[in-house]
């Protein structure tokens, strides 16, 4: 039961971080969170450890746990890692299929683009859905390569990718996000890793340039 309680609290705190309710740098104090959520200190400690593992929070000796700031160096290193994983997945797909990817792969990616489009259309009521569906689309692209290790690596970045997108949306609206990603999915089939590099470089520039 305590494990389930910790998971529930982790999910709640994660949403508060991603929504901006808990801004970057906010201290996450065990005692205060335990009181606020009627939870044990152990439950809170476990939940915070999960946030730190996802890089949504940072922990330092004598400084405690704080909401991650995702500074410029963090953005660059995250995008470097995403580029490596996603480019390799697209390279594998191209090596096997050229630009004519299997119909079932294309169908899955189209479904993810549809889900992102629906999330964007309803973003006024559920902005976290945009973050979730954007990350899911990129994870599905990597999973299409059929490499368990690449799929695992992409999934491990999921929460941090959502945080990146949340920061990015502070500087631009999500209105064109679905259309942009439909174009991206077509582009990677035609141009492979070069399209991945351009796509991720553009979002990195938009975030760093908008600060």
Automatic annotation (TrEMBL):
The keyword DNA damage does not apply. It comes from the Bacteria. One of its GO terms (molecular function) is DNA-binding transcription factor activity. Residues 3-70 form the HTH gntR-type domain. InterPro entries: GntR_C, TF_FadR/GntR_C, Tscrpt_reg_HTH_GntR, WH-like_DNA-bd_sf, WH_DNA-bd_sf. SMART domains: HTH_GNTR. The keyword Ribosomal protein does not apply. PANTHER family: TRANSCRIPTIONAL REGULATOR, GNTR FAMILY (PTHR43537), UXU OPERON TRANSCRIPTIONAL REGULATOR (PTHR43537:SF5). Keywords: DNA-binding, Transcription, Transcription regulation. It holds the Pfam family GntR. It comes from Quadrisphaera setariae. This is GntR family transcriptional regulator.
